[in-house]
Amino acid sequence: MRILDAYLLRKTLKPLGLVFAGFVGIFVLVDLFDHAHTFIDNQVELSTVLSYYLHYMPLIIVLTMPVAMLLATLLSLGGLARRREIMAMKGCGVSLHRMLVPHLLLALTLSLASMVVAELVLPPATSTRLEIEEQHIRKTPGQVTRSNVIYVRPDGAVFLARHLNTKRGTVEQVTIEEFDAEVRPVLRIDAEYGKWNGEHWILEDGLRREFSEGGEQAQPFDSYELPYSEPSPDDLRRRKLEPEEMGYRELRAYIQRL
Fold it and tell me: Which of 8, 12, 71, 83 fits as disulfide partner to 76, beta carbons 3.0 to 4.6 Å?
């Protein structure tokens, strides 16, 4: 049976390689046509383009491998059926379920490999790819200003700013809301201006309001330092990753924030 298993694996690996290469080619070509004008307008070097797509590969692998394995299995079994090999194996006492064992083991191996890639390789590769796109392709090393910025901290606190300037490390018209375990508001801070001192935000000209069962306590302030360091200006300007670009731990944190 080892000879038969090896034969079935060979018959699956060849179409798997062709299908996967086809998917990668289509994926890269579509993205290349979408970014071609940016590459040309900004005179991006070929090495930068290659590095960009090299760091794109983990995401492509994770997205296309399941479909590639499915199509490769169908093509492999279809070829065996056309050549009457399935009938011959059945005539020798090999059941259909036994024929599928090599395919199932290969699918399980590829699934585990995809999980490892998604958890260990994909997040840093995506971060590098976005950095290459920002600094070397679009050549906008950090967006200087942004409007209507929203950031949710791991503890559920919400940081909102009408305007952000990452170059100066300032925010304008800031609102910070904190909640208890039952998602009831316990604190709200409104400030006209905020300045990043390297570790914390220093808010100016604002109002601090605490909520409890006994009512509300409001206290205006000229200057107030937030006790936590997240979010930093880099956190506020950074593009949020899509779920398929995250590892398991990042997805879990993302779900908790939602």
Answer: 12
Largest CA distance in the chain: 88
Q: Specify the pTM.
A: 0.62
Distance CA 141, CA 81 (A): 56
Q: Which helix (H) or strand (E) holds 192?
A: strand 185-196
Which among 54, 48, 4 has a CA at the least distance from the CA of 24? Answer: 54
For the chain, counts of helices (H) and of strands (E): 8, 6
As a whole number of angstroms, the distance between CA 32 and CA 35 comes to: 5
Structure tokens at 162: 């009408």
Mean pLDDT for the stretch of residues 62-67 = 90
| Nearest by Cα to 190 from 163, 221, 215, 169 | 221
- In the predicted model, is pLDDT for residue 194 greater than 90? no
